Amino acid sequence: MNLNKERMSARTVSHLKKGEKGIIKSFTDRTMSLKLLEMGCLPGCEVRLDAIAPFGDPICINVGGHYSLSLRLNEAAVIELE
Fold first, then answer.
1. How far is Cα 45 from Cα 25, in angstroms, rounded to an integer?
2. Bridge partners (DSSP) listed for residue 42
3. Residue 1 pLDDT more than 50?
4. pTM score, two decimals?
5. How far apart are CA 34 and CA 52, in angstroms?
6. Domain boundaries, the chain
7. Whether 17 contacts 60, CB under 8 Å
């Protein structure tokens, strides 16, 4: 039961505020994790929230200081941060 509470309180990319950074820890969805891994979102990689669309979705993150990636909030919520 504690694991579920830890999962629910885990910080994800969708919780970041503009300009905030985080380190990718893991993913909560197996299918989406494969897609994100292919796009370079690897555990241990730093991400920074660069921009938020006017209505809050999608967002733009910088991955590892190398490139920008646009994600929907539900996709960003799959990426857990340390």
1. 8
2. none
3. no
4. 0.83
5. 24
6. 2-81
7. no
Sheet strand arrangement including 67-71: 67-71, 59-63, 46-52, 21-27, 79-81
* CB 70 within 8 Å of CB 58: yes
Q: What is the pLDDT of residues 18-69, one digit of tens each?
A: 999 999 999 999 999 999 999 999 999 999 999 999 999 999 999 999 999 9
At 9, is the pLDDT very low, low, confident or very high (cuts 50, 70, 90)? low
Q: What is the pLDDT of residue 2?
A: 47
Query: Can you tell me the distance from the alpha carbon of 30 to that of 80, in angstroms, rounded to the nearest whole number?
Result: 13
Class of domain 2-81: mainly beta
Contacts with 52 (C-beta within 8 Å, 6 or more apart), sequence order:
18, 59, 60
Q: Give the tokens for residue 73.
A: 């909030």
